[in-house]
Amino acid sequence: MVFVDRLLATLVHLRHGVTHDVLACWFGVDRSTVTRAVGEVRPLLAERGCTVSPDVWLRPVAEVVDHVGQAGKTGIIDGTEIRARRPAVGRKDRGRFFSGKNKQNAVKAIVFTDGDGRLLFCSPPKPGSCADITHARALGLVKLLADGPAVEILAGAGYQGLGAQSGGRVVTPPHRKFKKNAPDRYEEMQERRRKAHSSRRIRVEHGIAHLKNWRALARRDHMDDTVH
């Protein structure tokens, strides 16, 4: 298979979940040839990063922060869970992949989009039990924002606390001051502020939907490269 055919076969497999047997019939080659082509091209695509324009593609999260800062746009981050295969019995860290939120074995990735919901970055997946804020800190996002350009990053309640650590660059839903017996006026104000923040942040779901439209994620093989 020439490189263009190998690239096309890999993209069709990742996007639509077409099996290697079917691709082998389409291209008139042996199944092992398609398997080898997908195994070689997939890491190359993972290293490429997200293409923003024909001559600009973003790979490290530092490049994404700089790109958003130079463009003067708002960024949005959110965590998403992808169902993963259940770890083998006897594995020491087997419980780490169990997500308490969705009650299933999963891996979690941080999705970074611009204000229009265009996907700019997806982090390496972590076990499903990893908290969103812990994942962001491990990614180095707090330091990049604190030392980087003045940008506005919208985030969910799972990232509360990053605003103070990043110099106010991460904007999260407002904290509740009253857990019980809150005044009616306070509840109305809190609901308005929450909805206003949610309406701006909802665009990140478009980026997550774009990511999960790739059927290869349902196979749960080579998850790190496939996510990238």
Describe this structure in words.
About 45% of the residues lie in helices and about 20% in strands. It has helices spanning about 5-15, 20-25, 30-50, 60-70, 130-140, 140-145, 160-165, 185-200, 205-210, 225, and strands at about 50-55, 55-60, 75-85, 100, 105-115, 120, 125, 150-155, 170. The protein is globular and about 70 Å long. The protein contains ten helices and nine strands. With about 230 residues, it is of the alpha+beta class. Strands 3, 4, 5, 6, 7, 8 and 9 form a seven-stranded mixed sheet that branches. A two-stranded antiparallel sheet has the order 1-2.
Rg measurement, Å: 20 Å
Low-confidence segments, given as residue ranges, are none
What's the domain count?
2
What spatial form do the alpha-carbon principal axes imply?
Answer: globular
Helix content: 40-55%
Question: In percent, how much strand structure appears in the residues?
Answer: 15-25%
Number of strands: 9
Structural class: alpha+beta
Number of helices: 10
User: What is the H/E string?
Assistant: HHHEEHEEEEEHHEHEHHH
Distance between the termini: 24 Å
Q: What profile does the largest beta sheet have?
A: 7 strands, mixed
Average pLDDT works out at 88
